[in-house]
Amino acid sequence: MVGVSAVSGAAALPGSAVADSTTHTKKLVLHETASHRVGKNGAVGTDVARAVSSHAIVGYDSYSARVYPKQQRLVFQVALSLKGGIIVSRLSLMQGETQTTGPILTGTGKYRGIDGTMNVRTTQQGQVYATLHYQL
Question: What are φ and ψ of residue 109, in 5° steps?
Protein backbone atom coordinates (compact mmCIF):
# COMPACT_ATOMS: atom_id res chain seq x y z
CA MET A 1 0.00 0.00 0.00
CA VAL A 2 1.16 3.50 -0.74
CA GLY A 3 1.05 5.95 2.17
CA VAL A 4 -1.54 8.68 2.11
CA SER A 5 -0.16 12.19 2.25
CA ALA A 6 -2.05 14.88 4.12
CA VAL A 7 -1.34 17.41 1.38
CA SER A 8 -1.15 16.36 -2.24
CA GLY A 9 1.58 18.79 -3.19
CA ALA A 10 -0.81 21.61 -4.11
CA ALA A 11 -0.72 24.83 -2.15
CA ALA A 12 -3.33 24.70 0.61
CA LEU A 13 -5.20 27.84 1.45
CA PRO A 14 -6.52 28.41 4.96
CA GLY A 15 -10.02 27.00 5.22
CA SER A 16 -9.66 24.85 2.11
CA ALA A 17 -10.60 21.17 2.16
CA VAL A 18 -6.95 20.14 1.74
CA ALA A 19 -5.85 22.27 4.69
CA ASP A 20 -8.66 20.92 6.88
CA SER A 21 -8.11 17.22 6.11
CA THR A 22 -6.46 15.14 8.79
CA THR A 23 -4.80 11.79 8.31
CA HIS A 24 -6.19 9.21 10.73
CA THR A 25 -4.50 5.98 11.75
CA LYS A 26 -6.17 2.89 13.22
CA LYS A 27 -4.02 0.01 14.43
CA LEU A 28 -5.85 -3.28 14.90
CA VAL A 29 -5.18 -6.89 15.79
CA LEU A 30 -7.44 -9.29 13.91
CA HIS A 31 -8.51 -12.53 15.60
CA GLU A 32 -10.15 -15.05 13.28
CA THR A 33 -13.54 -16.30 14.50
CA ALA A 34 -14.53 -18.47 11.54
CA SER A 35 -13.44 -19.37 8.02
CA HIS A 36 -14.09 -21.99 5.40
CA ARG A 37 -13.28 -22.81 1.80
CA VAL A 38 -15.65 -21.90 -0.98
CA GLY A 39 -15.01 -23.87 -4.15
CA LYS A 40 -11.57 -24.89 -5.33
CA ASN A 41 -9.78 -21.52 -4.97
CA GLY A 42 -11.89 -19.46 -2.59
CA ALA A 43 -12.41 -18.87 1.11
CA VAL A 44 -14.53 -16.65 3.34
CA GLY A 45 -14.18 -15.72 6.99
CA THR A 46 -14.71 -13.31 9.84
CA ASP A 47 -12.46 -11.70 12.43
CA VAL A 48 -12.83 -9.75 15.65
CA ALA A 49 -10.93 -6.45 15.40
CA ARG A 50 -9.23 -5.27 18.59
CA ALA A 51 -7.36 -2.01 19.19
CA VAL A 52 -3.61 -2.62 19.48
CA SER A 53 -3.31 -0.09 22.31
CA SER A 54 -6.10 -1.35 24.60
CA HIS A 55 -6.97 -4.76 23.13
CA ALA A 56 -10.64 -3.67 23.37
CA ILE A 57 -13.00 -4.95 20.68
CA VAL A 58 -13.57 -2.08 18.23
CA GLY A 59 -15.23 -3.94 15.36
CA TYR A 60 -15.52 -6.98 13.15
CA ASP A 61 -14.53 -7.84 9.62
CA SER A 62 -15.83 -10.14 6.96
CA TYR A 63 -13.62 -11.19 4.07
CA SER A 64 -13.57 -13.24 0.92
CA ALA A 65 -10.36 -14.53 -0.59
CA ARG A 66 -9.48 -15.99 -3.95
CA VAL A 67 -6.29 -17.83 -4.87
CA TYR A 68 -4.85 -17.40 -8.36
CA PRO A 69 -2.46 -20.40 -8.57
CA LYS A 70 -0.87 -19.51 -11.92
CA GLN A 71 -0.03 -16.01 -10.64
CA GLN A 72 0.87 -17.32 -7.15
CA ARG A 73 -1.35 -14.57 -5.75
CA LEU A 74 -4.09 -14.28 -3.12
CA VAL A 75 -6.64 -11.45 -3.32
CA PHE A 76 -8.75 -10.42 -0.31
CA GLN A 77 -11.89 -8.27 -0.28
CA VAL A 78 -12.36 -6.99 3.29
CA ALA A 79 -15.32 -5.19 4.86
CA LEU A 80 -14.34 -3.82 8.28
CA SER A 81 -17.29 -2.81 10.44
CA LEU A 82 -16.44 -0.17 13.06
CA LYS A 83 -18.59 2.09 15.21
CA GLY A 84 -20.33 4.45 12.81
CA GLY A 85 -19.76 2.64 9.52
CA ILE A 86 -17.97 0.18 7.31
CA ILE A 87 -14.60 0.44 5.52
CA VAL A 88 -14.04 -1.69 2.40
CA SER A 89 -10.56 -2.56 1.14
CA ARG A 90 -8.89 -4.85 -1.38
CA LEU A 91 -5.54 -6.53 -0.70
CA SER A 92 -3.32 -8.62 -2.95
CA LEU A 93 -0.65 -10.91 -1.51
CA MET A 94 1.99 -12.81 -3.48
CA GLN A 95 2.98 -16.32 -2.37
CA GLY A 96 5.49 -16.19 0.49
CA GLU A 97 4.71 -12.57 1.47
CA THR A 98 3.63 -11.82 5.02
CA GLN A 99 2.70 -8.17 4.48
CA THR A 100 0.66 -6.25 1.94
CA THR A 101 -0.92 -2.85 1.43
CA GLY A 102 -3.99 -2.06 -0.60
CA PRO A 103 -6.37 0.81 -1.23
CA ILE A 104 -9.43 1.58 0.83
CA LEU A 105 -12.15 1.41 -1.82
CA THR A 106 -15.14 2.96 -0.07
CA GLY A 107 -16.84 3.59 3.23
CA THR A 108 -20.32 3.94 4.67
CA GLY A 109 -21.74 6.05 7.49
CA LYS A 110 -19.11 8.28 9.08
CA TYR A 111 -16.53 6.75 6.71
CA ARG A 112 -18.35 7.93 3.56
CA GLY A 113 -15.83 9.65 1.29
CA ILE A 114 -12.86 7.89 2.90
CA ASP A 115 -9.56 7.83 1.03
CA GLY A 116 -6.55 5.85 2.20
CA THR A 117 -4.79 2.52 2.53
CA MET A 118 -4.92 -0.64 4.61
CA ASN A 119 -1.75 -2.52 5.51
CA VAL A 120 -1.97 -6.08 6.82
CA ARG A 121 0.90 -8.16 8.14
CA THR A 122 1.12 -11.60 9.70
CA THR A 123 3.74 -12.45 12.32
CA GLN A 124 5.60 -15.76 12.53
CA GLN A 125 3.33 -16.60 15.48
CA GLY A 126 0.26 -16.19 13.25
CA GLN A 127 -0.97 -12.87 14.67
CA VAL A 128 -2.55 -10.56 12.08
CA TYR A 129 -2.11 -6.79 12.39
CA ALA A 130 -3.97 -4.24 10.27
CA THR A 131 -3.08 -0.55 10.04
CA LEU A 132 -5.41 1.88 8.30
CA HIS A 133 -4.18 5.31 7.18
CA TYR A 134 -7.02 7.44 5.86
CA GLN A 135 -8.55 10.86 5.35
CA LEU A 136 -12.21 11.79 5.44
Answer: 60, -130
